[in-house]
Design a protein that fits this description.
The complex is a heterodimer. In chain A, 70% of the residues lie in helices and 0% in strands. By secondary structure, chain A is mainly α. In chain A, helix 1 crosses helix 14, helix 9 packs across helix 11 and helix 10 packs across helix 11. Chain B contains 13 helices and no strands. The longest helix of chain B is centred in the last third of the chain and has 47 residues. The relative contact order of chain B is 0.13. Classes of the chains: A mainly alpha, B mainly alpha. The interface between A and B is large, with 101 and 109 residues.
Chain lengths: 299, 297
């Protein structure tokens, strides 16, 4: 390794050796196996598999629902983080603790409970009849409604389809934006706001031109984390997506289907595409974190 | 996390009362609808058909088996990933070597891999038509996929980063001085680890173990792919919930939710412990800062 051990501490070789071996056996070699499997296909076969009509529809669905859920979390998460850090009110600590519940709750349980919340006699579904295709709002999006005729027909029933997927992805993504923003907001120096106020800035101007720029890297990081989580999410989504190819099928469901038919190469090919996109997101997050250190005087 | 809460009460930082009330109300609504409502709904649905159905669901032999498989998988995942986390954190936080940044980045890799892919890669290696599957089965009689070892492997993969990524910053913040001192005073490597390192990192270590365990118990996608989902044999609790729910009767739904309450209970315990550990770490940090200030004076 060309290691330069300059401290009198023991165990460098042992700890690094074990860590590298364990990581190789459990993570790197199995992932490499997936790449090798996919590369045993010809390029044409690979390309046909990954650009299959249903596969492309699945990527599009996955990207768009993860994006919408990420944006919703970015907006609501900013407001919630602001409230949890800046304001003092009864129940603040409890709310703050609840933010982590989506991380601790198994995703299958989340999917299960969301599925029954939005069915027509569920706790929320009871009051959402207007979203049904015959409902007062839902019919706008149907084939005879204004939106349906002029833009696109959408089924906005909330228990089974893209809207339901967005809702569960908002649930699983809640902690990321809030937890990214909280430390930055808490460390933000009051003097900067005071200076802005003394120089005649309104509260909104202070927020827009002083606070928001400092929050931006953490905000984007939180958004990207929530988005990445939404891209790979499976457990909660399958409970609310009906797995109709080209409509409500997310890419992981295609992989599962191909595995069931013993089409290992094809499954590996789709997996490679997903891995590529999640590595791209990871790279983006790393660049953001590097960027955010610009503002950190301690480094 | 909210160390300078007092600073937030400064006059200049006070938003108008109406805005404050509006935003606080909004936060209650958002978290209420998205987090509290769905969680309470699990309890409501579990007891929808009464106590008897709830109790019967928890007494089913397939649920007991799923409970046991879940505990075994979580135990191995925690044990292995804790060992890895200690080793990786020691190497990364105490030594300089080439490729350190790359190693640190690679530790997070499993977080960005979809759980389905985590399952898939082990099927490709050890499945019936996989690279090593036939060999292991014919020569050693060892079945990995559609059996317990596969479930353990997949769970280990998805929970791989948790302990390491909690420990690395803790160890870096602590610095090597106390450990070096113990070595100059003649402590063996083992004594140094047992009497200096471990007591210093214990809360961070427990924190990582807690998160690792929560994810291991709740993992669904990866286990779903490798387990073969044989009721009473290779199901974990989350996987059994889906199968029971697919019974599509009112009783099946209530039973699935009854099993889900076990996982909700676990999640709530995890949250309470997590808050406790965060408070403990913060207190320890404050105490050591106070001591450092005293030494300086």
């Amino acid at each position: 390794m060309g290691a330069k051990v300059y401290r009198a501490l023991p165990g460098f070789r042992l700890s690094l050796g074990f860590a590298l071996m364990y990581m190789s056996l459990l993570v790197l070699i199995p992932l490499a196996g997936c790449v090798i499997k996919a590369s045993s296909m010809t390029w044409d076969d690979f390309w046909i598999t990954v650009t299959d009509e249903h596969a492309v529809a699945a990527y599009k669905l996955s990207f768009s629902v993860a994006l919408i859920a990420g944006l919703i979390n970015a907006v609501f998460g900013l407001l919630a983080a602001w409230v949890l850090v800046r304001y003092d009110f009864p129940g603040r600590k409890l709310l703050d603790g609840l933010v982590d519940l989506p991380l601790a709750l198994p995703t299958a349980v989340a999917g299960l409970t969301f599925r029954t919340l939005f069915i027509s006699d569920g706790w929320y579904g009871k009051y959402l009849g207007f979203l049904e295709p015959e409902g007062s709002v839902g019919h706008w999006f149907g084939p005879h409604g204004w939106f349906g005729r002029n833009v696109a027909t959408l089924d906005v029933r909330a228990h089974d389809g893209p809207f339901a997927i967005v809702l569960v992805l908002v649930f699983v993504g809640i902690p990321f934006v809030i937890r990214s923003l909280q430390p930055v907001l808490a460390e933000f120096e009051a003097e900067l706001e005071e200076a802005a106020a003394i120089l005649g800035a309104s509260r909104w101007q202070t927020f827009r031109h002083v606070i928001l720029p400092a929050l931006l890297p953490a905000w984007l990081t939180g958004f990207a984390l929530a988005y990445a989580r939404g891209l790979g999410e499976y457990g909660s989504v399958i409970f609310v997506a009906s797995n109709i190819p080209g409509e409500t099928q997310i890419p992981p469901l295609i992989i599962v289907k191909q595995l069931q038919q013993f089409k290992y190469e094809q499954a590996a090919a789709i997996a490679i595409v997903l891995l590529f996109f999640s590595l791209l997101t990871l790279l983006f997050i790393n660049l953001l974190e590097r960027w955010s250190r610009r503002y950190d005087p301690a480094r | 996390m909210l160390s300078n809460h007092a600073a937030n009460q400064r006059i200049i930082r006070k938003d108008p009362l109406l805005l404050r009330a509006l935003l606080i109300g909004f936060t209650f609504l958002f978290l209420g609808f998205m987090v509290v409502g769905p969680t309470l709904n699990v309890l409501y649905q579990a007891f929808y058909l009464g106590w008897d159905v709830f109790a019967a669901a928890l007494m089913r032999p397939d649920v007991h088996s799923a409970f046991r498989v879940t505990l075994i998988a979580a135990f191995f995942a925690v044990a292995f990933n804790m060992t890895f986390g200690l080793a990786a954190a020691w190497a990364i936080a105490r030594f300089h070597f080439r490729g350190k940044a790359l190693l640190t980045a690679l530790i997070d890799l499993p977080f960005s891999v979809s759980p389905i892919i985590a399952g898939l890669i082990f099927v490709l290696l050890f499945g019936t038509y996989g690279y090593f599957g036939p060999f292991l089965k014919d020569t050693l009689g060892l079945q990995i996929i559609f059996a317990l070892p596969g479930i353990i492997l997949a769970t280990m993969f998805v929970t791989f980063p948790f302990v390491a990524r909690e420990l690395i910053p803790v160890m870096e913040a602590l610095g090597p001085e106390e450990e070096e001192a113990s070595r100059t005073l003649g402590a063996s490597a083992w004594q140094m680890f047992w009497y200096i390192t471990l007591p210093n990192i214990k809360w961070g270590l427990l924190y990582g173990v807690l998160l690792c365990n929560a994810r291991a118990v709740g993992e669904f996608g990866a286990v779903n792919v490798v387990s073969g989902r044989i009721p009473g044999k290779t199901e974990t609790l989350p996987v059994s919930i889906e199968r029971i729910y697919e019974g599509l009767s009112e009783e099946a739904a209530a039973s699935a939710f009854a099993v889900a309450t076990l996982l909700v209970a676990m999640a709530l315990v995890t949250l309470v412990l997590k808050t406790f550990l965060e408070w403990k770490t913060l207190n320890d940090l404050k105490a050591s800062q106070k001591e450092a200030a005293k030494d300086a004076a």
